[in-house]
């Protein structure tokens, strides 16, 4: 029996979490934990809400609340939404518990006693108007790397670069817009630089086991040379520094990673089994932006403290985008976890099928609808419902094992599915595992169609083998879709929860039973339901970031006749066309929502009207260097075109 600690990165308690968070860290961790419980391993899955940090203080000031009140409010929302989505934490806690404060302060004091922490001064921004030092997120300005104008002091959302507030161009206080001044402040620093060599040796041992993105990122950091980092800040909201220093607290990045240890202590008195047993395995499921904290800084802290297990595996996913754009809390470009109106299992299925395991992936509502209707409903759900209904109609719902034989081909397919899907889950290849399982449902449909038990006077053997496939599907889908798998398990007349079953049970033939009346596992999602979700995405429509332009603004626009050279549909989108057009003096690329009303080949050679001096945009992953103009008639785009052939590039005034 393996001892496995499963952890997920701690979300800030400054708002609800979105599907990007869930797909990147919670869902893979939950699949992994559920599988290993079914394998008979001793599993603890822990995490919680990060209640400290400047994002919370900022939000609290905006809403007229204390940081404690605000973080408590959102902790409850986050905790409930995770539970509703089927996340099976043994403990989901928060960083304001007495236990967490004690654990954090113990590590701080121990590292200081061992001379891994020292005091020094540093230059920080100070707002003369607010009369206080400004933590990183209280400073905004122009990114020094990509020139984005709304970069925060800790990170630029546009290019993803980690920043220092001092590096920002044209910095300003995010509270009052005053230009801050530099001022010295005394803080505690972690001697991260002294761990460069031991971390390099340790990460080398992980090269064949961890994802390339984690290894490559970590090695690059180490090759560049680690620098000591401040671990306190000029804010009172946070874990107090041992022995107290007025107006200061422990930096949130330092106390948040300690949460994995404090949460395990809170969960069980036997926490040492996970943290001090050399055979125990700790898995950290995070997003790629958290790699340095989990693959470098936290291991360095553990090395300095000594006596606690280093990470067994840091599994970092890439980013999940939304309709071709990054999730953005500040721009309200997100699907909030507490506001998803669809079956959680259907959402979990789609997110697993597009999980950004090795590269960024893209969530679209139309993609979700397609996956649900064509795979969950038409392939998996349809097969299960056909078999159960035929069993009820042909056999009165009764299965007698002594009258039937296991088809060797079916059993071999079942065995292969169970073994291969299990190996893929254990190796954190969740998409491939799910594909293998769903392929068994497709095989079942083919088998059922070939045998045609509805034409047979003695369909018992065929339905018996089909029910063995159904049983296997129920068990193997349990880590991915916990609710529907348990519903199916109950329909097969089992009194216990499917999550109490062993994974190996999926290979065993079904026992004598009388099934319950079947109900559909999943329901078809209609176009109207998807349109509602599209309209909720901020103030912008899905796959169309181009704004409507007020009439008075047209005098500033370069509007001209352009000629379409080539038009192609953008892969993965039902609405968008990629259009190459001659604008008179050069060729440009446009993205336009015309796919549902115009065939690409019919557009080629046509002259249309376009705005050519708009800022370049990224739509559904493709650059758009302007806007093809159309009139709106009964919600259908009517292209603006010249009455007669006109010289390409002719301006329209």
UniProtKB/TrEMBL annotation:
GO terms for biological process: methionyl-tRNA aminoacylation. The keyword Protein biosynthesis applies. It catalyses: tRNA(Met) + L-methionine + ATP = L-methionyl-tRNA(Met) + AMP + diphosphate. PROSITE patterns: AA_TRNA_LIGASE_I, TRBD. Binds 1 zinc ion per subunit. Pfam families: Anticodon_3, tRNA-synt_1g, tRNA_bind. InterPro entries: aa-tRNA-synth_I_CS, Anticodon_Met, Met-tRNA-synth_bsu_C, Met-tRNA_ligase_1, Met-tRNA_synth, Methionyl/Leucyl_tRNA_Synth, MetRS_core, MetRS_Zn. GO terms for molecular function: ATP binding; metal ion binding; methionine-tRNA ligase activity; tRNA binding. Coiled coil: none annotated. Keywords: Aminoacyl-tRNA synthetase, ATP-binding, Cytoplasm, Ligase, Metal-binding, Nucleotide-binding, Protein biosynthesis, RNA-binding, tRNA-binding, Zinc. A motif ('KMSKS' region) lies at residues 326-330. Residues 553-653 form the TRNA-binding domain. A motif ('HIGH' region) lies at residues 11-21. It is found in: Cytoplasm. Zn(2+) binds at residues 143, 146, 156, 159. Its EC number is 6.1.1.10. Residues 634-653 are annotated as: Disordered. It is an enzyme of class 6 (ligase). SUPFAM superfamilies: Anticodon-binding domain of a subclass of class I aminoacyl-tRNA synthetases, Methionyl-tRNA synthetase (MetRS), Zn-domain, Nucleic acid-binding proteins, Nucleotidylyl transferase. Its cofactor is Zn(2+). GO terms for cellular component: cytosol. Homodimer. Is required not only for elongation of protein synthesis but also for the initiation of all mRNA translation through initiator tRNA(fMet) aminoacylation. NCBIfam families: metG, metG_C_term, PRK00133.1. Belongs to the class-I aminoacyl-tRNA synthetase family. MetG type 1 subfamily. This is Methionine--tRNA ligase. It comes from Methanonatronarchaeum thermophilum.
